[in-house]
Amino acid sequence: MPEAAPQQSSIIETFRAIEAELTAAGAPFETTEVEIDGHRVLTYRNAGATFHESVADLATRFADNVLTVDDETRTYADIFARAARFAGALRERYGIAVGDRVGVMMANQSSYLVALLAITRIGAVAVLYNSRSSATEIAAAFEDVPSTVVIADPPRIELLRTVDHAATLVSTDRIDAELPTVDSLIAETDTDGPVVEAPADAPCLILFTSGTSGRAKGVQLTHRNLVNVVLNMRFVVECNLRIAAHRYGIAVDDIRALMPPTSALLIFPLFHVSGLAGLISALNSGGRVATMRRWDPAVAVRLIHEHKLTLMSGPPMTVDELLKQPDASTLLASLVNVTPGGQATPPNLTAHISDTVPGAQRSNGWGMTETAGSVCTAGGAVLADFPNTVGPVSPTMRVRVTDAAGQEVPAGTLGELELSGGLVMAGYIDSDGSLTDDHRPWLSTGDLGYVDEHGLIYLVDRSKDIVICAGENIACSEVEAALMVGDAFTEVAAFGVPDERLGEKLVVAVTVDGDRTLDADDVRDLARETLPPHKIPAEVRFDMSPLPRNATGKLVKRELRARYLAQSTATAD
């Protein structure tokens, strides 16, 4: 790997000195070790015990600040008060107790925040179901991770009524006289739910991954995980302020006074760790979040301009569409940070951001559901000098790189990235309700990369057979299984190829059985029988048979992808 220039080394030395100062004994971000499952794990010494404790003071600190902007505008005091009263309703009407699971399934909106804050206030576990799931996927999620009560918006209520489950439903909006709503329960409840203290390693949230097998896995995150997320984000902000102060010779407090609160346009759904990251970034600074029920770049531009939003994070496709809107340079001038996420950022998009919104910085990072979000972040001077890095690992995380035999390799050597620390999940939830424990002491990420001599992480490839299209993870095996349900095909292979707009697009190569005559629309119609819209193949190829296989009969996706790209290049020529 190339050596860093002197100026680059200077930036890293500055960062490491600031990091050491902020995490030292007695400092705001002092780190320590605790024992979890018999292993020593890094965490913050000053962390609160619960997620609620880490955000509770915001209701008074930022009482009159606007927190949510959607169909209506609500302040911090209003949202937290509604959450406290709704927590009382969950306790009184439904008997929700510590450790009980309460599901949330809706588009981004203020009721999502009310539900999340209410559930965690009383020590219950918030299960954030994928609101974009098909009925089949939801049935599987409820089978693996059932909830006592589920709070959903009307479209999801209608979907849930077609699925076999035992949960009691609460709607965000009035549907019929029998179904209670969030507003009606708040109005009918006289007392706030109590603040319940839970152990730091008790469950707080359950999110879902796409899973390489095609069936989503429930990921159990603890209060310790979420508190580490909150403090990590505060650490990153403080670190960047001090680096800027050092670089420009300005007092840190003077720079802090110039910085507006982080106000975010939530593009990623809140059941996704990137959506939660946008929310927590805003909460930490008393900023606001603007939500959209569905993506519309024209509406997004209006919201950013009207509410002076500073942070926009979304899949590269949405960022690109936003930047192409009329008068984008003028209307997006309030943006301080534009962060394409969920997949690799195309080089042309980085240039487009700089040209259209020159006052905004681009950030980079790396994380996953299993770590409650980002484990490393790069921005400002560090990303300017090391444009390909995803950043240094967070203070409460450790990273190592291993070879195929599981042995740690030296700096600069490519291998699988493994993680340990306070952000790592409690475990996957098995179908019998138990937790996996094979992620201790090191979580295998399935991502390939290396760590340079400065401790900066670089991603090179993914070892998992996942296509990331417009920020959504698609398990190839799930698509293949859906198409192989009938007898139309003798073989099916799903794979991803680079796409400037989507990041990757989903392609399926099929071998049709016998004398059948099918076209691409027929294949997509078959996929739609069991798959949601974002998992429908963008392209269907009938001309790649026989599909490449190794000596044991396994599909060789690398060769299949190369063949596709070669054919596409030849066609273009």
UniProtKB/TrEMBL annotation:
Domain AMP-binding enzyme C-terminal: 478-554
Pfam families found in the cross-reference section: AMP-binding, AMP-binding_C
Protein name as it appears in the record: Acyl--CoA ligase
Source taxonomy: Bacteria, Bacillati, Actinomycetota, Actinomycetes, Mycobacteriales
Gene3D superfamilies assigned: 3.30.300.30, 3.40.50.980, Luciferase, Domain 3 (2.30.38.10)
CDD domains: AFD_class_I (cd04433)
Entry annotated with the keyword NAD: no
Keyword Repeat on entry: no
Residue span(s) of domain AMP-dependent synthetase/ligase: 59-428
Signal peptide range: none
GO MF annotation, one: acid-thiol ligase activity
